[in-house]
Amino acid sequence: MKKYGIVIDTNVIVSALKSRRGASYKLLTLIDKEKFVTSISVALILEYEDVLKRGHLNLSLNHQDIDNILDYICKIADKREIFYLWRPHLKDPKDDLILELAVEAESDFIVTYNKKNFVNIDKFGLEALTPKEFLKKIGELP
Fold it and tell me: Which of 16, 18, 49, 105 might form a disulfide with 25, Cβ 3.0–4.6 angstroms?
Protein backbone atom coordinates (compact mmCIF):
# COMPACT_ATOMS: atom_id res chain seq x y z
CA MET A 1 0.00 0.00 0.00
CA LYS A 2 1.27 3.48 -0.87
CA LYS A 3 2.34 5.65 2.04
CA TYR A 4 0.51 8.93 1.48
CA GLY A 5 1.67 12.37 2.50
CA ILE A 6 -0.89 14.53 4.28
CA VAL A 7 -1.34 17.88 5.97
CA ILE A 8 -3.92 17.90 8.74
CA ASP A 9 -6.12 20.98 9.00
CA THR A 10 -6.59 22.56 12.42
CA ASN A 11 -10.29 21.67 12.53
CA VAL A 12 -9.38 17.96 12.44
CA ILE A 13 -6.97 18.33 15.38
CA VAL A 14 -9.62 20.22 17.36
CA SER A 15 -12.22 17.56 16.63
CA ALA A 16 -9.82 14.77 17.64
CA LEU A 17 -9.11 16.42 20.97
CA LYS A 18 -12.76 17.17 21.73
CA SER A 19 -13.94 13.58 21.39
CA ARG A 20 -12.40 10.13 21.35
CA ARG A 21 -15.08 8.98 18.96
CA GLY A 22 -14.92 9.59 15.28
CA ALA A 23 -12.54 9.60 12.39
CA SER A 24 -10.44 12.58 13.47
CA TYR A 25 -9.47 10.88 16.75
CA LYS A 26 -8.70 7.62 14.92
CA LEU A 27 -6.52 9.55 12.48
CA LEU A 28 -4.61 11.15 15.34
CA THR A 29 -4.06 7.77 17.00
CA LEU A 30 -2.48 6.50 13.76
CA ILE A 31 -0.16 9.45 13.31
CA ASP A 32 2.89 7.47 14.44
CA LYS A 33 2.04 4.10 12.89
CA GLU A 34 3.83 4.74 9.57
CA LYS A 35 0.65 4.37 7.53
CA PHE A 36 1.08 7.94 6.26
CA VAL A 37 3.40 10.89 6.64
CA THR A 38 2.03 14.10 8.09
CA SER A 39 3.86 17.34 7.42
CA ILE A 40 4.03 20.41 9.62
CA SER A 41 5.50 23.89 9.49
CA VAL A 42 6.15 26.44 12.19
CA ALA A 43 3.12 28.43 11.04
CA LEU A 44 0.82 25.40 11.26
CA ILE A 45 2.01 24.35 14.71
CA LEU A 46 1.54 27.92 15.93
CA GLU A 47 -1.99 27.89 14.52
CA TYR A 48 -2.73 24.55 16.21
CA GLU A 49 -1.48 25.98 19.50
CA ASP A 50 -3.38 29.24 19.17
CA VAL A 51 -6.69 27.54 18.41
CA LEU A 52 -6.32 24.71 20.94
CA LYS A 53 -5.52 27.06 23.81
CA ARG A 54 -8.57 29.24 23.31
CA GLY A 55 -10.85 28.86 26.28
CA HIS A 56 -14.09 28.61 24.32
CA LEU A 57 -13.30 25.13 22.95
CA ASN A 58 -13.96 23.51 26.33
CA LEU A 59 -11.31 20.86 25.82
CA SER A 60 -10.75 18.53 28.73
CA LEU A 61 -7.04 19.26 28.41
CA ASN A 62 -4.89 21.82 30.15
CA HIS A 63 -2.19 23.86 28.42
CA GLN A 64 0.52 21.38 29.41
CA ASP A 65 -1.47 18.51 27.88
CA ILE A 66 -1.83 20.51 24.67
CA ASP A 67 1.88 21.32 24.67
CA ASN A 68 2.70 17.63 25.10
CA ILE A 69 0.46 16.65 22.17
CA LEU A 70 1.96 19.33 19.95
CA ASP A 71 5.49 18.35 21.01
CA TYR A 72 4.73 14.78 20.01
CA ILE A 73 3.36 15.85 16.65
CA CYS A 74 6.51 17.92 16.13
CA LYS A 75 8.68 14.95 17.06
CA ILE A 76 7.18 12.52 14.56
CA ALA A 77 6.02 14.76 11.70
CA ASP A 78 7.88 15.74 8.57
CA LYS A 79 9.07 19.28 9.29
CA ARG A 80 9.04 21.72 6.41
CA GLU A 81 10.16 25.30 5.94
CA ILE A 82 8.14 27.46 3.63
CA PHE A 83 10.29 29.68 1.43
CA TYR A 84 7.55 30.96 -0.83
CA LEU A 85 3.96 32.01 -0.50
CA TRP A 86 1.08 31.22 -2.83
CA ARG A 87 -1.10 33.80 -1.17
CA PRO A 88 -3.68 34.71 -1.83
CA HIS A 89 -4.98 31.56 -3.47
CA LEU A 90 -7.79 30.50 -1.15
CA LYS A 91 -10.46 32.62 0.52
CA ASP A 92 -9.03 32.17 4.03
CA PRO A 93 -5.35 33.08 4.57
CA LYS A 94 -5.12 30.40 7.26
CA ASP A 95 -6.08 27.85 4.63
CA ASP A 96 -3.36 29.24 2.37
CA LEU A 97 -0.73 28.32 4.94
CA ILE A 98 -1.97 24.72 4.80
CA LEU A 99 -1.91 24.74 1.00
CA GLU A 100 1.64 26.16 0.97
CA LEU A 101 2.80 23.44 3.32
CA ALA A 102 1.10 20.69 1.31
CA VAL A 103 2.75 21.95 -1.90
CA GLU A 104 6.19 22.24 -0.26
CA ALA A 105 5.91 18.74 1.22
CA GLU A 106 4.57 17.29 -2.05
CA SER A 107 1.66 15.88 -0.05
CA ASP A 108 -1.12 13.88 -1.60
CA PHE A 109 -3.97 15.13 0.56
CA ILE A 110 -5.14 17.87 2.86
CA VAL A 111 -7.27 16.25 5.55
CA THR A 112 -10.00 18.68 6.58
CA TYR A 113 -13.64 19.01 7.50
CA ASN A 114 -13.86 22.11 5.29
CA LYS A 115 -13.34 20.65 1.83
CA LYS A 116 -15.20 23.55 0.27
CA ASN A 117 -12.43 25.89 1.47
CA PHE A 118 -9.89 24.04 -0.68
CA VAL A 119 -11.35 24.41 -4.15
CA ASN A 120 -9.05 24.19 -7.17
CA ILE A 121 -6.18 22.59 -5.27
CA ASP A 122 -6.11 19.82 -7.85
CA LYS A 123 -3.87 22.05 -9.99
CA PHE A 124 -1.24 21.50 -7.29
CA GLY A 125 -1.74 17.73 -7.43
CA LEU A 126 -3.68 17.77 -4.16
CA GLU A 127 -7.06 16.57 -3.01
CA ALA A 128 -9.00 17.55 0.11
CA LEU A 129 -10.47 14.62 2.04
CA THR A 130 -12.34 14.34 5.30
CA PRO A 131 -10.70 12.19 7.99
CA LYS A 132 -13.23 9.44 7.28
CA GLU A 133 -12.50 9.50 3.55
CA PHE A 134 -8.76 9.37 4.19
CA LEU A 135 -9.08 6.49 6.68
CA LYS A 136 -11.07 4.54 4.08
CA LYS A 137 -8.37 5.22 1.49
CA ILE A 138 -5.65 3.75 3.74
CA GLY A 139 -7.80 0.77 4.72
CA GLU A 140 -8.54 1.80 8.30
CA LEU A 141 -12.31 2.01 7.79
CA PRO A 142 -14.59 -0.19 5.71
Answer: 16
State the Cα–Cα distance between residues 121 and 73, nearest whole angstrom: 25
Distance CA 88, CA 70 (A): 27
Going by the DSSP 8-state scheme, the letter that residue 65 receives in this structure is H
Task: Please tell me whether the overall predicted TM-score, pTM, comes out greater than 0.85 for this model.
Answer: yes
Give dist(CA 35, CA 72) in Å, integer: 17
pLDDT of the residue at 87:
61
User: Could you give all domains of the chain from N- to C-terminal order, each with its CATH number?
Assistant: 4-137 (3.40.50.1010)
Q: Specify the pairing of strand 36-40 against strand 4-8.
A: parallel
Task: Give pLDDT tens digits for 88-114.
Answer: 677 777 789 999 999 999 999 999 999
